[in-house]
Design goal:
52% strand; 5-stranded antiparallel sheet; disordered N terminus; 364 residues; mainly beta
């Protein structure tokens, strides 16, 4: 799952929590107890606009970022363990997979000390002066050491460099990364070879693809006219696109055939370009999300129904409880809410005092 943010706190539950049945099929699980000066940073999880709730045994897996108001720090918690702590607003979760034992990528830093760390799947790297992960796979990151301008790439445990500049492509291809050395740009292939590219450094590069046969395709914004251009194997396509257009699904085959989409997904204008032939397409059209989070991230406004429409759950930031089938439950609005088909139950999470609680109501 890639880089999380509805303003819903993401979590998944863990086995070491306390549980109690309160009658009428209601189960209350305390998944975490906060320190005296700690609270959840609700807006810090923005990984894929969804929440995850995974039951494991009698408990749940979960993750969150805490703020310690006394120490002025942020703390990343994963399945009950405090993984990382950093200066306030300097801790970032880039990836989260709560089905894995160490399913996270978290970067954190300490201001004024040139100390940045990155923890990838439980393995800590650093300290560095600066560190930048590859958002497509997280198998790579590049970094700069204190007192130096040279850049190095850590590629599956091996350091490569030094380089003047480094760029991680947005789309997966045979290019692991691009680097600049002595004014020239090279593509480092996945099998460890180096291929000289036609890039000059004057382009604001946003996409680069390389095939195993050596064909390449890249998208860039011209620094002079501000337009966006596509270049396929040395041929610049068209007269430039408006820089506000969105681009989707760049594809390049070994024989040089290419496909990409561009347009405005909210205005119903998407164009497909297939080997120079342009046509309109309904792919990647989107409807604006009217749900969003107008409440500052402290809770959600939920409306859920069971598949048979016999049961309904409602929650609003305006009320200190959740309503299911006309009955009030708990003492706080939901942070996240869901229907569990296997159990025929509604579930929701709340913060009550210093406790992070998951409720489950059996609808049998």
């Amino acid at each position: 799952m890639k880089q999380l943010l509805i303003s819903i706190t993401l979590f998944v539950a863990i086995a070491a929590n306390t549980a109690g049945v309160q009658g009428d099929g209601l189960k209350r699980n305390v998944v975490f107890t906060f320190g005296e000066n700690e609270f959840i940073l609700y807006n810090e999880f923005v990984l894929c606009n969804e929440h995850l709730v995974l039951q494991e045994g009698n408990g749940y897996r979960f993750a969150c970022i805490l703020q310690d108001t006394l120490k002025k720090t942020n703390v990343f918690v994963f399945n009950g363990k405090r993984i990382a702590e950093a200066d306030e607003d300097n801790l970032f979760v880039y990836d989260l997979d709560m089905t894995q034992k160490s399913g996270y990528v978290v970067l954190y830093r300490f201001w004024g000390q040139e100390q940045e760390y990155i923890n990838i799947r439980g393995r800590l790297h650093g300290p560095f002066a600066d560190v930048y992960p590859d958002y497509t796979s997280y198998d790579l990151f590049y970094y700069r050491k204190a007192g130096s301008q040279d850049l190095f790439v850590r590629n599956r445990g091996e350091d490569e460099g030094p380089y003047d500049e480094v760029y991680f492509p947005e789309y997966d291809s045979n290019c692991a990364y691009l680097y600049q050395l002595a004014g020239k740009w090279f593509a480092r292939t996945k099998d460890g070879k180096n291929k000289l590219t036609p890039l000059t450094g004057d382009e604001y590069l946003t996409t680069f693809l390389l095939t195993e046969s050596g064909k390449y395709m890249y998208r860039y914004q011209d620094r002079e006219d501000g337009k966006v251009y596509i270049n396929v194997d040395g041929v610049r396509l068209g007269n430039g696109y408006d820089r506000y257009y969105d681009f989707f699904h760049f594809q390049l085959e070994n024989d040089g055939r290419y496909i990409y989409y561009y347009g405005d997904p909210y205005e119903g204008k998407i164009h497909k370009v297939d080997n120079g032939i342009e046509s309109e397409s309904d792919k990647y059209l989107q409807v604006p999300d009217s749900f969003g989070d107008p409440f500052g991230g402290s809770s959600i406004q939920a409306e859920l129904y069971s598949p048979d429409k016999e049961h309904a759950l409602f929650s609003s930031y305006r009320y200190e409880y959740v309503v299911i089938d006309g009955q009030r439950y708990g003492s706080a609005p939901a942070l996240a809410a869901w229907y569990d088909e296997g159990k025929n139950a509604f579930g929701w999470s709340v913060v009550e005092g210093r406790e992070w609680v998951v409720y489950e109501l059996d609808l049998q």
